[in-house]
């Protein structure tokens, strides 16, 4: 005969069978049964079941291998142009809150309020990895500002390691589709698709702050399945590579052969080097200059 008890672990409940003889079962209430754990009160047990139910729909942050917790990367679909493995020195201000959700809700609300205020001044933000969610927001902002006033310039600050090629091309096509000029300003890092969007701003109105870093390279991706499936994905990657390099050659004034050679591996540039390369038109020493973009014929060395 066995007695089933409930014990708790780090992230789940476990049923443990405690064997004992039938003779001892008659004296169950007269003898102390030593358990390897302390039973949870009903209130805490109910809360634990509730947390387990809510966690079913969430994506795993890590996978337990039996000896250690290993981070779990979400699967990516399509062609990507991003460097998420860059070891960038950091000095975080916010502590690591529960489950890595970032700053507390009060700080997040204030941050969204600041973003809204900047949007009223026709300033939009391209920050973080370029994905479909970011692209949908930026596309909607660009279309709205175009409808409100097609004559005033739009300023887009870029601080991105790159991301999805198709999402980035949605932003790029919208920048060319709308009537206002789009001035791009690099702050921090513009890599991969971030650098492509930086160079896609209106010529003469593409800037960078002095300590920013800019990097270009070829698209990244992977394929699996049969030979035909792999050939299809390989041809798709070649299409995106040729398309992106063609636009980079047009935006920078460099030859297509040089673009193909430079993007074969990660090609990092400082703000000054990016200006000489043709990715940007000027290095801004005074951030207020970004609100009043210079004419395309101006020197741009402010």
UniProtKB/TrEMBL annotation:
Signal peptide: none annotated. PROSITE patterns: CLP_PROTEASE_HIS (PS00382), CLP_PROTEASE_SER (PS00381). Its EC number is 3.4.21.92. It is an enzyme of class 3 (hydrolase). GO terms for molecular function: ATP-dependent peptidase activity; ATPase binding; serine-type endopeptidase activity. GO terms for cellular component: endopeptidase Clp complex; plastid stroma. It comes from the Eukaryota. Keywords: Hydrolase, Protease, Serine protease. Pfam families: CLP_protease. The active site is at residues 192, 217. One of its GO terms (biological process) is protein quality control for misfolded or incompletely synthesized proteins. InterPro entries: ClpP, ClpP/crotonase-like_dom_sf, ClpP/TepA, ClpP_His_AS, ClpP_Ser_AS. NCBIfam families: PRK00277.1, PRK12553.1. Belongs to the peptidase S14 family. This is ATP-dependent Clp protease proteolytic subunit. It comes from Gossypium arboreum.
